[in-house]
Design goal:
349 residues; Rossmann fold; 7-stranded parallel sheet; 12 helices; binds nicotinamide-adenine-dinucleotide; binds 2'deoxy-thymidine-5'-diphospho-alpha-D-glucose
Length: 349
Amino acid sequence: MHILITGGAGFIGSHVVRHFLNSYPSYTITNLDKLTYAGNLANLREVERLPNYRFIKGDITDGDFLMRLFEEQRFDGVIHLAAESHVDRSITNPTAFVVTNVLGTVNLLNAAKASWGANLEGKRFYHISTDEVYGSLGSEGMFTEETPYDPHSPYSASKASSDHFVRAWHDTFGLPVVISNCSNNYGSFQFPEKLIPLFINNIIQKKPLPVYGKGENIRDWLWVVDHAQAIDVIYHQGKTGETYNIGGHNEWSNIALIQLLCRIMDTKLGRAAGESEKLVTYVTDRAGHDLRYAIDSSKLQRELGWVPSITFEKGLELTVEWYLTESEWLSNVTSGSYQCYYEEMYRGR
Ligand code: NAD
Ligand code: DAU
């Protein structure tokens, strides 16, 4: 079995690469990643020397390159995670999201179709998507696999579009695809532009914690290790042509989550109770900010038997411990271009 994992140097991708290498030593795993600002090969140090792992630096927006790669490598499966993934960046530079997330996905579909031809036995194209394609919820209800798509940000619109293309290649060309839509992930190796690692880093440095709007928006958080496990289950047992929602039934308003994070950080850093929360600073809201996400993952639990392994409180504590222990990882990532990005994004807020 030879699987191509795209975006394997990113946050979730690096967990998926590690999970597959550890769980399936007989598989060959090729990680294709462009190494954008979000791709970091240090995320994969633990597995980089394994004989069944290889890394290729490459861009999914280059269709000719992908055609050659698939022709040479004869992959049995694709797990596609490469994407521009940060909503705030999609507001400042939407086109990059269209090019990578839409065109890049179509290029991969074309390459898989050309390489596999009519020989589809044992083949699988697994597209990793997000709950944001479903839009925003009010105070009631949850996203199911039947919820109509209603994306609002350039990021979620590009992911929704890519999902439609994946389904079109299944319905039109018979490509054996499967899709999953997951809620917000947290855990080790997440780039500190997303809420949890950004705030951990700012608390360490006693910098303000920029809470968008009133902090009332709600997200449904899942430990990234549990997402990687769900991806394994869906890759091996999911039904072709189907979609599976992945989530942990774990909704938190941003401000409640931040208060919990501040309490954990105070304890771990030996600071007085309430010290980190004093850093909370309410700033201008994100444009088009979705109010609430909540995922109904009962189909995945019922049909494939997947359940999350730990509580959010435990997972968040483990995550904080990881960032405090891996201070070198954090300082390497937060230097250089990240600093310019940070200044640009938060100037005037
Ligand atoms: P990330 O930004 O941490 O990683 C993305 C990776 O893709 C990086 O390694 C980057 O170098 C690579 N990449 C970007 N453009 C590329 C290109 N043109 N060619 C090749 N590689 C390229 O993202 P993440 O948070 O790990 O998300 C991974 C996937 O999971 C994305 O498709 C995202 O939409 C989806 N997702 C993320 C979450 C979440 O909470 N982070 C939740 C649900 C779904
Ligand atoms: O729901 C899944 C999605 O979750 C993924 O598809 C995306 O790739 C991933 O980035 C994430 O999107 P969010 O926009 O929900 O994540 P983010 O960490 O950027 O923000 C989480 C919430 O915190 C959101 O309501 C905005 C708020 N926030 C975020 C940042 C970075 C703040 O209040 N302040 C901040 O500085």
